């Protein structure tokens, strides 16, 4: 065989000799083509070209055991030869592109057109006719120079449009920059385990090079392509590449090819990295997607397009060459690019609660604004026509036509101004600023936000379903009790109390059967606790071996990982892990005190359950059973694939109780959640006694409360009907009282989350947050309104499915997220309260003023200053308020709570009444009060008046003081509370005041202002200050008395959606309420909602949920392969008839090598396993019961379970189970 391999290998070398192989005996092209093959074809190619994987390692100058040497020059050379493990990010939009996008705004375009027409017409003079002949309004300009300045208004409008566009573009640019920073921060978090210089180390994903030997384990997202060197029961989910949901088993003889972007769902192993970055399978697809995007941009190059398509088809054919494992990239195969683009724009996940409400509100305000502006224009033109041609009785003179057109343009500009004021284009800006600010600050509170909207949704959370291990507890596990040789030790026993043979086997079993990636390291600081690396349950067992004064490393050195004969790795069904060793020794181990094996009867089992397991579990300990079995040569070699037979007739060595102490800060954090109206539920894989004990310590269960504490089996029994289908009504009876769900599987977790979210029994509807760390928590994390993944203990798959990553795995960080979320919501409401008061007043003033005086008291440029510039500042000021503890003293708003509460409506209308009274008083009586000339009925191009300048100045002063009022939205009296903690707010208010002084004193004609005296200024400031005093009056009026007030800004209810539209949307994951609003004939409006598009587009560009390609994340937000692939689509059939048994459940801290067995064994087995307790709510027993059901043959024959006295066993199996 060896000579065969050698000969083939030589032939392969000659075959490939024509490639440019550089420093290595392998070219990039060669490796790329190798990774395009699957299964048998791949194996054949490896055998032909390299002999075996060892030959490939030799060619790449690496060792399958020690990996690369790790020298900097070697790594650099490999990066140069084979590329880096990064996918170059899509170029960010340039500032000019963002300016161009901001210019697309409909309202701005209308203003630009009107301003240009106004500019053009302002230079026109009627040649012969006197201006007076064109009507009174046209004449009256004494000074020719004054008439020459008619162009200023048009120019000023254009200038302010330019300012608005630049401010918008700058905001978008800085946000894009911020999000790219966030993206790179997420990527820096991602590390992978490789072997370099014989040492197992973790490096950043981007540092991986071709030739590296990487360790893969359950839950990993593969960062590069590789060939398997050694694997234990390795199963991969390749659905992100192939669309096939079945897991693919990877072995050296069958299919050794592992591809980037796929997920390890089971097992562990070592792989040789063969392709990285753009040369990996994911990278190739990404390059094609990028190429396709470029083609869309440049449609002239059709020829090139055809070539690309051919290339793509080639790739598809190649990938489909092996039966079911073809790379079916649907977006790539589509002939109709346009249709694909349409699909790409459909969001996969429901828009956030806030976004839905805001879109709906903006649409409603936009409609009202359009109506008002249209009405204004019609009334103005009608009044002008009636006045000129009927009252003055003037004939239509052809030479006067441009003058009349000029008037119409002026009226049109006034109409557009009303519209500009009506549309709250500061709203999306406030949202993005508030979210971006919160996200930045949340990082300091150990919350890494992946999806922006999750931040605000968290503020509405009414329920949190939390894991136990690592989140509520410290995830620092230690063995504190043990049951050995018929004795229950309350503390870890001294080694001399344990029979030598038992001790040897115990330490060997622990050393070999714990993953080799788990180990105990020396403490970082002197006198500190030893560091636990890897799976914490395994670390507890390794620590137990050290406590018994034995070194597990000596055993691992004797039996390196390559020498393990067979490994049955941990998975959610098996709930245990076993390792088979080839041995020459003979063993007799036991449960009896003298070291002899004895039959384990059902009586013994009951005794262990009652006297050992239950007492341990009720103290909050996790119980784990360690067992083994000999395979004597006389019995012949068993079928190693038949796991059920292998894992029967085991002999129990020991049952240990592992303590995981509650985090000291958790009880207080849970108390704060409960006070804030959030229900905390514990969903765990541990048994019910352990879960109940921990829940009581945390404060989830309060003495005297009416709560439910059940396990997964009981939960399934209660929620399913006779056909085994889940019924919502049944879930509704359970969830309101449920506090602890023990022994739950990931499916149970998903069912519970979906049940709570879909429930309508309680108002408001529930908003659910979920924590998870394991691969199988993916569906629940994706389904929940907010998914929290653990940054330390979490698998890559869980992180990809989550919205927020807890970088310290701590429950108290979730409470911080709740505070920030509520703060975002309140910030938006504060801004809305301020913005709508400005809008209501400005629209009414412009409308009534225009109708009565045929001119708007607030000119277009002044309106633009008030509306666009000041709104931008106000959104910045009000959106950056820091959160306070008082946010946690109120109940959550819930899903359907309106954005504008009745109290806010009272404030908006109350302040509008004050402001309108002042403005109209000044408008119609201001000239007498201040003894100045009236500014009403001024002719076209008349110079600015003091009268209208005072109106404008007072209006701005009132907004400034009202901004301080807007800081409180729940009717608080002290509006100055904490104002100096927010320096941004103070500086913006002061800055706006300074700019206003400059505009009034030096603005002149462009701003239609004249200089005011000190007296006039003081009156303006005093009238503005009146807003604060009036605010106290408004607060005094009880909201409950004002029955006529209505709230506004509700989310869309499902029943409001027409049936045919609901049917259309069935293929989407959720109903996108905001999108629905936009569909119903309002698309036109939504485009024009000042800058809303631009703002939301920037956010959406970075929202992973808006993925254009099924199974792939948006290319622009990805610059490393590791981050390029999104979570596989989890298919969960809710109506599945089979009832999952406890055996199918999964241990809650889903770590790669957790050994959790949840099966009962037959009464005469020698394994110390225990029967299910008759009490359904008390499944402490499940914790200990190991492994798989035994074959009936063995269990039926008591003698067969007894080990021979001294078997010469060539194969000895060691077992650890939970």
Unreliable runs: 1-21, 140-147, 297-350, 585-594, 1053-1091, 1102-1218
Mean of pLDDT: 75
Radius of gyration: 37 Å
Number of helices: 42
In whole angstroms, how far apart are the ends?
43 Å
Number of β-strand runs: 24
Tell me the major beta sheet. Answer: 8 strands, mixed
**Category by helix and strand content:** alpha+beta
**Strand order in space, largest sheet:** 8-23-22-21-9-18-20-19
Give an overview in words.
It is a single chain. By secondary structure, the protein is α+β, with helices and mostly antiparallel strands. The chain contains 42 helices and 24 strands. The protein has an eight-stranded mixed β-sheet with strand order 8-23-22-21-9-18-20-19, sandwiched between helices. Strands 1, 2, 3, 4, 5, 6 and 7 form a seven-stranded antiparallel β-sheet that branches. Helix 6 (95-103) packs across helix 9, helix 11 packs antiparallel against helix 12 and helix 17 (426-444) packs parallel to helix 40 (1092-1101). The longest helix has 43 residues, at 811-853. 51% of the residues are buried. Residues 1-21, 140-147, 297-350, 585-594, 1053-1091 and 1102-1218 have low confidence and may be disordered.
């Amino acid at each position: 065989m060896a000579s065969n391999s050698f000969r083939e290998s030589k032939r392969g070398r000659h075959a490939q000799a024509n490639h440019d192989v550089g420093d290595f005996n392998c070219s990039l092209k060669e490796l790329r083509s190798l990774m395009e093959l699957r299964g048998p074809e791949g194996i054949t190619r490896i055998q032909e070209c390299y002999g075996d994987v060892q030959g490939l390692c030799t060619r790449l100058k690496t060792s399958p055991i020690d990996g690369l040497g790790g020298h900097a020059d070697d790594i650099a050379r490999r990066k140069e030869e084979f590329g880096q493990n990064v996918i170059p990010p899509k170029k960010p939009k340039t500032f000019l592109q963002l300016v161009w996008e901001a210019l697309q705004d409909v309202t701005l375009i209308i203003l630009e057109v009107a301003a240009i027409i106004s500019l053009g017409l302002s230079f026109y003079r009627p040649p012969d006719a006197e201006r007076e002949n064109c009507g009174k309004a046209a004449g009256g300009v004494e000074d020719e120079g004054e008439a020459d300045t008619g162009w200023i208004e048009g120019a000023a409008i254009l200038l302010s449009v330019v300012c608005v566009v630049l401010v918008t573009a700058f905001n978008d640019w800085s946000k894009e920059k911020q999000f790219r920073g966030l993206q790179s921060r997420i990527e820096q978090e991602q590390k992978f385990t490789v072997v370099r210089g014989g040492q197992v180390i973790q490096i950043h994903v981007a540092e991986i090079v071709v030739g590296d030997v990487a360790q893969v384990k359950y839950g990993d997202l593969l960062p590069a392509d590789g060939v398997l060197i050694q694997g234990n029961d390795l199963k991969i989910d390749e659905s992100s590449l192939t669309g096939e949901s079945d897991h693919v088993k990877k072995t050296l003889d069958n299919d050794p090819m592992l591809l980037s972007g796929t997920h390890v769902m089971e097992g562990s192993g070592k792989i040789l990295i063969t392709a990285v970055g753009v040369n990996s399978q994911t990278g190739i697809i990404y390059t094609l997607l990028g190429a396709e995007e470029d083609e869309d941009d440049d449609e002239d190059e059709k020829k090139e397009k055809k070539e690309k398509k051919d290339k793509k088809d080639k790739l598809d054919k190649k990938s489909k060459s092996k039966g079911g494992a073809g790379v079916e990239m649907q977006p790539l195969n589509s002939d109709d690019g346009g249709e694909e683009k349409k699909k790409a724009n459909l969001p996969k996940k429901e828009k956030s609660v806030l976004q839905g409400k805001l879109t709906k509100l903006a649409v409603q305000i936009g409609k009202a604004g359009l109506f008002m502006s249209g009405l204004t224009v019609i009334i103005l033109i009608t009044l002008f026509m009636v006045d000129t041609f009927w009252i003055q009785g003037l004939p239509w003179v052809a030479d006067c036509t441009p003058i009349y057109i000029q008037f119409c343009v002026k009226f049109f500009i006034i109409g557009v101004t009303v519209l500009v004021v009506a549309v709250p284009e500061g709203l999306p800006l406030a949202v993005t600023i508030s979210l971006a600010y919160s996200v930045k600050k949340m990082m300091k509170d150990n919350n890494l936000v992946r999806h922006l909207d999750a931040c605000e949704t968290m503020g509405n959370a009414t329920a949190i379903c939390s894991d136990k291990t690592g989140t509520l507890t410290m995830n620092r596990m230690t063995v504190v009790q043990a049951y050995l040789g018929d004795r229950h030790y309350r503390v870890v026993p001294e080694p001399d109390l344990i029979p030598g043979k038992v001790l040897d086997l115990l330490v060997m079993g622990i050393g070999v059967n714990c993953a080799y990636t788990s180990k105990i390291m020396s403490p970082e600081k002197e006198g500190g606790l030893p560091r636990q690396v890897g799976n914490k349950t395994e670390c507890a067992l390794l620590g137990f071996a050290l406590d018994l004064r034995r070194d597990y490393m000596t055993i691992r050195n004797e039996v390196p990982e390559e020498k393990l004969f067979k490994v049955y790795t941990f998975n959610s069904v098996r709930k245990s892990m076993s390792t088979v060793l080839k041995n020459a020794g003979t063993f007799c181990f036991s449960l009896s005190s003298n070291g002899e094996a004895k039959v384990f009867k059902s009586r013994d089992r009951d005794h262990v359950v009652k006297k050992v397991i239950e007492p341990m579990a009720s103290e909050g300990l996790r119980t784990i059973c360690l067992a083994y079995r000999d395979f004597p040569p006389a019995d012949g070699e068993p079928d190693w694939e038949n796991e059920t037979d292998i894992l029967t007739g085991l002999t129990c060595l020991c049952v240990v109780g592992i303590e995981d102490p509650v985090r000291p800060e958790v009880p207080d954090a849970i108390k704060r959640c409960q006070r804030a109206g959030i229900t905390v539920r514990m969903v765990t894989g541990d048994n019910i006694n352990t879960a109940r004990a921990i829940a009581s310590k945390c404060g989830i269960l309060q003495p005297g409360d009416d709560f439910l504490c059940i396990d997964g089996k009981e939960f399934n029994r209660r929620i399913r009907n006779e056909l085994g289908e889940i019924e919502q009504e049944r879930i509704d009876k359970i969830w309101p009282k449920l506090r602890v769900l023990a022994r739950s599987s990931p499916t149970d977790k998903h069912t519970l989350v979906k049940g709570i979210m879909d429930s309508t029994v309680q108002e408001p509807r529930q908003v659910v947050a979920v924590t998870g760390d394991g691969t199988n928590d993916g569906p629940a994390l994706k389904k929940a309104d907010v998914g929290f993944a653990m940054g330390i203990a979490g698998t890559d798959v869980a992180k990809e499915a989550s919205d927020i990553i807890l970088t310290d795995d701590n429950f108290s960080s979730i409470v911080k997220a709740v505070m920030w979320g509520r703060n975002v919501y309140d910030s938006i409401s504060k801004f809305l309260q301020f913005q709508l008061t400005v809008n209501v007043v400005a629209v009414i003033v412009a409308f009534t003023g225009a109708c009565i005086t045929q001119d708007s008291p607030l000119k277009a440029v002044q309106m633009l200053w008030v509306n666009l510039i000041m709104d931008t500042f106000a959104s910045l000021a009000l959106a950056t308020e820091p959160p306070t503890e008082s946010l946690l003293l109120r109940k959550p708003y819930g899903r359907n709570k309106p954005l504008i509460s009745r109290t806010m409506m009272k404030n908006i209308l109350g302040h509008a009444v004050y402001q309108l009274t002042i403005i109209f008083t000044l408008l119609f009586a201001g000239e007498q009060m201040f003894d100045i000339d009236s500014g009403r009925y001024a002719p076209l191009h008349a110079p600015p008046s003091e009268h209208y300048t005072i109106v404008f100045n007072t209006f701005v002063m009132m907004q400034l003081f009202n901004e301080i009022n807007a800081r409180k939205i729940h009717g608080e009296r002290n509006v100055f509370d904490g104002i100096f903690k927010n320096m941004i707010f103070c500086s913006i208010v002061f800055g706006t005041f300074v700019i206003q002084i400059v505009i009034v004193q030096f603005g002149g004609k462009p701003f239609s202002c004249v200089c005011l005296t000190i007296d006039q200024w003081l009156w303006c400031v005093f009238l503005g200050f009146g807003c604060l005093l009036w605010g106290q009056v408004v607060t005094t009026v009880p909201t409950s008395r004002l029955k006529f007030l209505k709230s506004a800004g509700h989310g869309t209810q499902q029943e409001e959606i027409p049936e045919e539209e609901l049917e259309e949307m069935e293929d989407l994951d959720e109903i996108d309420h905001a999108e629905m609003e936009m569909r119903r004939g309002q698309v036109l409006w939504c485009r024009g909602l000042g800058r809303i598009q631009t703002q939301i587009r920037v956010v959406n560009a970075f929202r992973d949920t808006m993925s254009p390609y099924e199974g792939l994340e948006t290319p622009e937000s990805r610059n490393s392969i590791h981050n390029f692939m999104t979570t596989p689509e989890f298919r969960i059939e809710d109506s599945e008839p089979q009832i999952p048994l406890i055996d199918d459940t999964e241990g809650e801290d889903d770590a790669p090598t957790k050994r959790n067995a949840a099966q009962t064994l037959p009464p005469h087995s020698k394994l110390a396993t225990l029967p299910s307790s008759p009490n359904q709510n008390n499944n402490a027993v499940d914790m200990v019961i190991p492994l798989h059901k035994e074959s009936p043959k063995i269990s039926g024959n008591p003698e067969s379970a007894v080990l021979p006295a001294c078997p010469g066993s060539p194969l000895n199996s060691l077992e650890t189970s939970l």
